[in-house]
Design a protein that fits this description.
heterodimer, A: 221 residues, mainly alpha, B: 188 residues, alpha+beta, Arc Repressor Mutant, subunit A, 4-stranded antiparallel beta sheet, 3-stranded antiparallel beta sheet, 40% helix, elongated
């Protein structure tokens, strides 16, 4: 049969519901049959009474049929009650099945949550470690910044000096009119030479500072 | 009641065409004739909600009460009836064109809707009434109060089973058996 191939599984609960429903169907069938029977008998009764209006009421057959009708309708009531019971039962079982699924879902969610929480167990150590690392990093930063700032300042100074020399030097030197063919003026020449000497002296100072920097650098690393 | 009249009233005028009841010798015309008969039977079954018909052309019902409608192959009004061999031929045409299924030796299930469309209709009912993933008995499906407004209400159990098997093939249903008999179905 085809049902072997399908993947839908049939649980025990399904089978139980099936049994319940089969009984329900039986009751349903019984109710219908009895209703039909009662209707038939009622018609029969009417027929009998119409046929014999005078003695009809005393006819034992008429009384019997009426009794039967009453008995059948009593049974019908019982059947209806049972039908309701069974229907309630089916509904309850179906609801329980849904509840079961609900519980299963809850459980699964809980499992996932605990698993995730477990992954956070090392968080405190991790945070401590991170804090430590940050502190260390800050220390390093401080050391680096203090020593580097000095060197950097020096470099700036030197660059400024260089720029100054370039700018001022180029302004002073090329703009001087050529002295060739002019009578020598002693005072002014001496003055410019002394300016040059001063510059040289500054350059030497800078070289010294660089050397100092180089010496201090290995200590930083 | 004059049932023959009701049949003629139910069916198109061709039903009262006398040559229809005689097996036509010309092959081409005979095909046409058989097709017409198939349509008439389908129409007849549909209007009378007949799930099952006997070889003789009467309606077969599950309940004990005999059908009051006479055979479709007998037209009292024009005093014509189809001969048994011809009736046989009509039925084999019905089977061949998948408009009927042989149920037992002399009864046929009439498919005025194809198995596929019946099964989709059942599926539609399950979907619209929230019966998915629940156990439903065949009785509930065919006779229950919840399907009263649906076309498949009162459906022949055998036909119902065949429709549900179609759903099983599509992987939408599982049959539930009780004491070796298919009693219920679970549709997802």
């Amino acid at each position: 049969m085809g049902q072997k191939g399908s993947k839908i599984e049939v649980t025990k609960a399904d089978k139980a519901v099936l049994q319940l429903k089969i009984s329900k169907d039986d009751l349903h069938r019984y109710t219908r049959r009895t209703e039909l029977l009662i209707n038939n008998e009622r018609q029969q009764l009417r027929h009998l009474l119409k046929e014999d209006p005078k003695n009809g009421k005393k006819n034992p057959r008429v009384r019997l049929i009426l009794k039967r009708i009453h008995y059948q309708s009593h049974l019908l009531d019982q059947a209806a009650d049972q039908l309701i019971n069974l229907e309630n039962m089916v509904a309850t079982v179906e609801f329980k099945l849904i509840e079961q699924q609900f519980i299963a879902g809850l459980k699964q969610g809980n499992d996932v949550l605990t698993k995730l929480n477990k992954e956070f167990a090392g968080a405190e150590d991790l945070l401590d470690d991170v804090q430590e690392q940050i502190a260390y990093q800050e220390e390093i930063d401080q050391i680096l910044s203090t020593s580097v700032v000095g060197g950097f300042e020096d470099e700036l100074d030197r660059e400024l000096q260089q720029l100054d020399q370039e700018v001022n030097g180029s302004q002073n030197l090329p703009e001087l009119p050529s002295t060739e063919g002019l009578p020598a003026i002693q005072d002014s020449k001496q003055g410019s030479e002394s300016v040059k000497q001063g510059e040289i002296g500054e350059e030497a100072k800078q070289e010294k500072a660089e050397e100092e920097e180089r010496r201090t650098e290995p200590l930083l690393a | 009641m004059t049932e023959p009249q009701t049949i003629t009233a139910q069916l198109p005028p061709i039903y009262s065409f006398p040559p229809l009841y005689t097996c036509q010798p010309n092959a081409l015309i005979r095909q046409q004739q058989l097709d017409t008969w198939c349509e008439l039977i389908l129409e007849f079954a549909k209007t009378n909600k007949a799930w099952c018909m006997s070889q003789e052309g009467t309606i077969v019902t599950n309940s004990e009460q005999a059908s009051s409608i006479p055979s479709i192959f007998v037209n009292e009004q024009i005093q014509r009836s189809a001969a048994a061999p011809f009736i046989e031929e009509i039925w084999s045409k019905m089977l061949q064109s998948e408009k009927a299924i042989r149920s037992s030796k002399s009864t046929y299930i009439i498919l005025w809707k194809s198995l596929d469309s019946w099964s989709s209709l059942i599926l539609q009912w399950c979907e619209s009434s929230g019966k998915l993933n629940q156990v439903i008995t065949l009785y509930e499906l065919t006779e229950g109060d919840e399907t009263l407004d649906w076309e498949f209400h009162g459906m022949d159990i055998e036909l119902c089973e065949k429709c549900l098997l179609k759903l099983c093939d599509r992987g939408r249903a599982t049959m539930l058996k009780d004491q070796g008999k298919v009693m219920g179905v679970k549709i997802v």
